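Box 3.1 A note on notation
Throughout this textbook, protein chains are presented in two layers. The first layer is the amino acid sequence; the second is a token string describing backbone geometry. Keep the layers aligned when reading.
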Amino acid sequence: MPAHSPSGKEYTGRYLVLFKNEATRDEVNALTLIDGFSFPDDKETYDDSFNKLKVIISEFDEKSRQILERSKLVKFVHKEYIFPVPYATLSSELKFGPLSAIS
């Protein structure tokens, strides 16, 4: 579901998800079964380090966000990351929220 900036432009909402424990492939695959959830790029790019995966940026709608917030698997470490549609470059267009919980 697109979010709207103060300027009126549409944005795709994405969130930084911190896994409470090391995520397994099965746990990450289970997230993809939630309606509205998707990874911003091919999740297979994470395959070589799946057992050490702790943080992932993902995209999902408001209903899915609420489901994930109730999940015991993940927690959100800040509010929404905002990417202009369709995708932004990490260096120029990403607006970061507080990241102190990641350190």
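Residues 62-70 form the longest helix (9 residues). Residues 1-13, 45-54, 79-103 have pLDDT under 50 and may be disordered.
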